[in-house]
Amino acid sequence: MDSDGQLDLYRVVADRLKEAHSRVRSLHAPEDVRLALIRKLLVITAAAKHDVAGAAQRLDRLMRDLDEGRFPDDGSA
């Protein structure tokens, strides 16, 4: 991937991570569920430093789960 495309992907992932964090903060769910989701977002953020494309895919799955109301039920990430 060219460097401009890579930078664009980083920007998109960063913007989507901000959106995801905001959605999780405002989520009406038990604290342990929100903490599990925050841990997942932190893992995705760390992964983006080494594999932005893979992190984008993981973020897509997490956002889809949020959209469909699928949350961790036991507080584990």
Task: Tell me what you see in this structure.
The chain is mainly α and 77 residues long. It has one domain. It contains 3 helices and no strands. Helix 1 (3-25) packs antiparallel against helix 2 (31-48), helix 1 packs parallel to helix 3 and helix 2 runs antiparallel to helix 3 (52-67). The longest helix is centred in the N-terminal third of the chain and has 23 residues, at 3-25.
Short descriptors:
single chain; 77 residues; mainly alpha; 0% strand
Write the layout of secondary structure elements.
Elements: H1 3-25, H2 31-48, H3 52-67
Helix pairs in contact: 1-2, 1-3, 2-3
Brief write-up:
This protein has 77 residues and is an all-alpha fold. It is built from three helices and no strands.
Please state the CA-atom Rg, rounded to the nearest Å. Answer: 13 Å
Structural class: mainly alpha
How is the main sheet built?
A: none
By DSSP (H or I, 4+ residues per run), the number of helices equals 3
Helix content: over 70%
Count of structural domains:
1
Mean pLDDT: 89
Instruction: Kindly state the number of beta strands.
Output: 0
| Beta-strand proportion | under 5%
Shape: elongated
Low-confidence segments, ≥5 residues, pLDDT <50?
none
First-to-last CA distance = 31 Å
Order of helix and strand elements from N to C terminus: HHH
